[in-house]
Amino acid sequence: MTPTERQTKAPADARAPCPQGRISESTTTRDGVEILDITNYVPFFLSSINNALSRGASNLYRERFGIGISEWRTVSMLAIEPGITAARICEVINLDKAAASRALATLDELGYLDSVSSEKDPRKRLWWLNEKGYELHAKIIRIALRREETLIEGADPDDLEAAIRVMRLMMKNVRKL
After folding, report:
1. Is residue 13 pLDDT above 70, yes or no?
2. SS3 of residue 14 by DSSP
């Protein structure tokens, strides 16, 4: 069934939730071979957008502040939730353990963090931003928010909110993969 046939078959409010009710197709055929249609394949968009955002942010933050995107995400997480372990950072921002450890070590070495051994498990540390860390956070958050404004420029507010709802759903669903 083509996207047009699917669209005319049922009104939008009667379509099943994705993937059964999807209008666009993730694949196409070329020379008899099924291939991805990257103009409709959601993981392509998410990956490409994330790669470009991360690369650009990392270059900018390294140039201006001497830290990369993993360190910024860690700083951001510690501002949101002070006094947490590396494992908690990994859980929330989907950073792998090695990257989180490197980010914490770099930020600690640069003097942005304070920490203490966890009472429950002395092998684990609880981390938080110190005054210098919050000063760094205050500088970078302004840049991060301007980058977000540029990213969403031209988007209809209702479309943006719908996209955010879908991305929240995808964050929940990615744990099933």
Report:
1. no
2. helix
**What 3-state DSSP class applies to 131?**
helix
Total Cβ atoms within 10 A of residue 53: 15
Pinpoint the alpha helices (H) of the chain.
3-9, 42-65, 69-80, 86-93, 97-109, 131-152, 157-174
Separation CA 31–CA 38 (nearest Å)? 17
Query: Which among 20, 37, 17 is positioned nearest to 28, based on CA atoms?
Result: 37
Torsion angles phi and psi, residue 17, rounded to 5: -60, 155
Backbone φ, ψ for residue 45 (5° rounding):
-60, -50
Give percent above pLDDT 70 in the chain.
Answer: 92
pTM beyond cutoff 0.90: no
CA dist., res. 23 & res. 8, Å (int):
10
